[in-house]
Every structure is written in structure tokens, then in C-alpha cells.
Design a protein that fits this description.
- It is built from 14 helices and 21 strands.
- It has 457 residues and is an alpha+beta fold.
- The protein folds into two domains: 160 residues, Creatine Amidinohydrolase, Chain A, domain 1; 291 residues, Alpha-Beta Complex (Creatine Amidinohydrolase), CATH 3.90.230.10.
- The chain has a six-stranded mixed β-sheet with strand order 6-5-4-1-7-8, sandwiched between helices. Strands 9-12-13 form a three-stranded antiparallel β-sheet.
- Helix 5 crosses helix 6 and helix 10 packs antiparallel against helix 11.
- It is globular, with a radius of gyration of 25 Å.
- Bound molecules: glycine.
- Glycine binds next to loops.
Length: 457
């Protein structure tokens, strides 16, 4: 069983007499009598596969797992749904013991007694540190009777983040399926956009958001992995824009950044397409620069290279494109090397080229190579003169998943050719690192402009 295997791997790292305590997420009120849709905590779910709220896992270094969960309660189950309950939990989840969550306050001090180290997620669950303190106080009160109290507290995320960074076969399969659903949703949104415009119907950003949601839910995704961005025209230059109510006009580009979550795993795709299905000359020219940058980043993504190599490859292509199209003038900006060194591209490309992806859309995991965490050097920013800390980038390994998402965002300005004003373009795929390169799991929706035009025709 995958969850038992993960618990065993974590237990093996807890050290002599270590105990890990991991709660799931709390339910959050939205307004009167109405909660936000519950979504479990990723660490908790990674170790249990258990979806109910109000649950905790306690894992000992010898591999013994205890679950605390909602007790069976006919009255509550009529309103909120069936509960697994502590009696059924051991067999269903492969754990050794289970208790009603109401017994947490008495059972956890017992579990901590005579242990050396308590591990829990630091700075994730507000108030957890206080609760751990309270349980330790209960243990300490028994010291005079010969009990010993853990003398060390450690952050369990340090261990779990490393485990979660390398996706196992089960996770890779889920992520491919989530990516496939999201790719279908992007195709549907592109096609509906062009069809509605051709039929003379109004298209608003929220119409395309509705198409994305339809496709996600139709294929079993529980919800979007993050708030979908559907941005028409100049709105695409707002990086954290959400699907709003702007009208989409023929002749504009539409940027959609959306992906579904499937059984706890995220997908994350961005496509930029012409609303009416045909790129104009300047749109296509800028799009080609971003696509070439993405291809360069993809080529630089494989096991054994640095995480930042993809970003640096993309920046080089984008910078050259900005010079070639006259968005940066070589008179003022200088050479390609000047543009890169002085980060002059950042006026049009102000974000990084990717992030880890997994259970969370910005998944856990250090971007610095763990063994080189303390190798810090100083760099003077050539523009601001400020001193920056530089740490060695993470080295990619098979099973890591990251996004590759270069973009260009051109606002109207007197020193920028008018043909490019208000164009915002990003192309984003999800890459599974393999020993030879990377597998782009989101290419069910094309990126080549000719192919986009064909499927919108
Ligand atoms: N594509 C969504 C995000 O990276 O935040």
C-alpha cells in the first residue's frame, strides 16, 4: 500500500525514539453557516490517503501509526456525510491504532512519553506549536514518576518535502491524468471562444472560465488547482489576474492559466491564443519568441542539470527576441550580454520560468541543493547596487515535476513599438524530469501557433 510505504519511509528517518504528529487542514468558515469547500492538508493526505477533516496522524520511529478521526455520529453523518470512524480506520488505512479525535488531548501525551524527539510541521498550522507545548507539559508533569519528556522538536516538513519532491509511479500517473483533463479544458475554451465570436455572440472571460470548469468536473476533477486566470487583451499583462467579466474581442489575444486538481494532484497549464483563431503578424512574432524560449528551457531540463538552467536558457532567448523586435533598442540597452547582466528584460519578463508542481500547485521542496544549503556567496546587483545572496541551485533528478513557463508582457509605452502594446503571452507546460530529459505531460493541448489556429478553425 502506497501510504503505508510512505509512512515506513518517513518513520525510518525519525531517529531513535522520534514521533511525528501531522494534522490535516482545518475547516474554514466562509460566511454564516457556510464553510469553504474542505481540502485536506497535503502532508497528511500524502501519508494516509484519508480525506476527512478533523484528523491527525501520529507516527513513531518504529513504524507504529495512530490515527485520530471524527467518531461515528448518526446525527452529524445525516448532515455532513458518512464518517470512517476509528473502528474501521485501521483496516481501511493500514494503520495500527485509531481513536476518536476527542481523545487527542489524553492519548498524545501518552504517545510522547519516553520519546526523544517530536516532529511536526513548523509554521503550517497556526496554534500547533502551542498544542505541542501543552502535550509536552502533561508529559513533564509525570517526570517525577520516572517518565521522560522529548527534549527536541524538529520540523517534519524537512523530511516530507524531500520525499514529496520525487513523484512515485502512483503520483506520476495521477499527474498525467490531471494534465490530460486540463489540456482538454484548454482546447474546449479555445474552440468555444472562436465559435462564439464567429457566431456573433458575446464572449466574456467568465464564459471561458465556465468551459474550463465544465471540462474539469466532467472528467472527475474535484476542483481547479488554483484560481483560473482568463485574461483578454491587456488584462494578460496583469500576472495574477483572475477570470473576470471583460468582453473578449476578435483580434485580441486571450491568456488562460488554469489547471485542475485530481485526487490531490495539481496540473498547471498556460496557453495564449488569438480570440478569433488567427494570430496577427505582431502577435505571432512575439508568440514565437516566447515559444522559442520555452523550447530552450525544455532542452535545458533533464536529470543532473540545475533547476535555474531552464530559466537562464529562456532569459537568453527572450532577451534576444526583445532586441530583434525592437522592444529593447540596442542603442540604449547594448548587447545581449548587457541585457542579461543588467536584467533589462525584466521590464517585459518579471517572473521565474518555473516552480515545483505536485500536490500543491507551488509544491513543496527546496530550490537549493540540500547538501550545499550553506554555500552562500554575495552578488552585487548591477542595476540597484544591492547585495544579493546566491545559493547553489537544486540539481534535477528523475521524478521531480516542474512547470516551464516563460512569458512576455508588453504594456503601452512611448518607447515601445505600438504593434506590441498590450500583448501578454505565456506558454506553460508541466515537465516530469526523466533520466534522459523531461516528459511534457501537458502537451495534449498544442503550443505551435499553426496547430492552435487549426484546432480553432
Ligand atoms: N499557474 C499558477 C501559478 O503558478 O500560480
Amino acid at each position: 500500500m502506497i501510504y503505508a510505504d510512505r509512512r515506513a519511509r518517513l518513520a525510518a528517518q525519525l531517529g531513535d525514539r522520534g514521533v511525528a504528529i501531522i494534522p490535516t487542514a482545518t475547516e474554514k468558515p466562509r460566511n454564516r453557516d457556510n464553510d469553504y469547500l474542505f481540502r485536506f492538508d497535503s502532508y497528511f493526505h500524502y501519508l494516509t490517503g484519508f480525506n476527512e477533516p478533523n484528523a491527525w496522524l501520529a507516527l513513531r520511529a518504529d513504524g507504529h501509526s495512530t490515527l485520530f478521526c471524527n467518531p461515528k455520529d448518526m446525527e452529524r453523518e445525516i448532515w455532513d456525510g458518512i464518517r470512517l470512524g476509528p473502528d474501521a480506520a485501521p483496516e481501511a488505512l493500514g494503520i495500527q491504532a485509531a481513536y476518536p479525535v476527542t481523545e487527542l488531548g489524553t492519548k498524545l501525551p501518552e504517545l510522547l512519553e519516553n520519546q526523544a524527539t517530536v516532529w511536526y510541521p513548523f509554521a503550517v498550522h497556526p496554534g500547533l506549536e502551542t498544542r505541542v507545548d501543552e502535550w509536552l507539559q502533561v508529559v513533564r508533569r509525570k517526570v517525577r514518576q520516572g517518565a521522560s519528556c522529548p527534549d527536541t522538536q524538529r520540523d517534519v516538513c524537512v523530511l516530507l518535502d524531500e520525499m514529496r519532491m520525487i513523484k512515485d509511479a502512483h503520483e506520476q500517473d495521477l499527474m498525467r491524468r490531471a494534465a490530460h483533463i486540463s489540456a482538454g479544458a484548454h482546447i474546449r475554451a479555445m474552440q468555444v471562444c472562436a465559435q462564439r465570436l464567429r457566431a456573433g455572440q458575446e464572449v466574456r472571460e467568465y464564459h471561458l472560465d465556465a468551459e474550463l470548469l465544465h471540462e474539469f468536473r466532467q472528467h472527475g476533477s474535484q476542483y481547479p488547482a488554483y484560481g483560473s486566470i482568463v485574461a483578454a487583451g491587456a488584462n494578460a499583462c496583469v500576472l495574477h489576474y483572475r477570470a473576470d467579466n471583460a468582453t473578449i474581442e476578435a483580434g485580441e489575444l486571450v491568456l488562460i492559466d488554469a489547471g485542475c486538481e485530481l485526487d490531490g494532484y495539481a496540473s498547471d497549464i498556460t496557453r495564449t491564443f488569438p480570440a478569433n483563431g488567427r494570430f496577427s503578424g505582431p502577435q505571432r512574432a512575439l508568440y514565437d519568441v516566447v515559444l522559442n524560449a520555452q523550447e530552450a528551457a525544455v532542452a535545458a531540463t533533464r536529470s543532473g542539470v540545475r533547476f535555474v538552467d531552464g530559466h537562464e536558457a529562456a532569459v537568453r532567448v527572450l532577451s534576444q527576441g526583445l532586441l530583434d523586435l525592437g522592444l529593447l533598442s540596442s542603442d540604449k540597452a547594448g548587447t545581449l550580454e548587457d541585457v542579461i547582466e543588467r536584467r533589462l528584460y525584466s521590464r517585459f519578463y518579471m517572473h521565474r520560468t518555473g516552480h515545483w508542481l505536485g500536490m500543491d500547485v507551488h509544491d513543496c521542496g527546496s530550490y537549493v541543493e540540500p547538501t550545499e544549503q550553506h554555500q552562500v556567496s554575495d552578488r552585487t546587483d548591477p542595476v540597484t547596487g544591492a547585495t544579493q545572496k546566491v545559493r547553489p541551485s537544486r540539481i534535477l533528478q528523475p521524478g521531480m515535476v516542474l512547470t516551464i513557463e516563460p512569458g512576455l508582457y508588453v504594456r503601452a509605452a512611448p518607447d515601445v513599438p505600438e504593434a506590441y502594446w498590450n500583448l501578454g503571452i505565456r506558454i506553460e507546460d508541466d515537465a516530469l524530469v526523466t533520466s534522459k530529459g523531461c516528459e511534457l505531460i501537458t502537451r495534449g493541448v498544442p503550443v505551435a501557433p499553426d496547430e492552435i489556429e487549426r484546432l480553432m478553425a
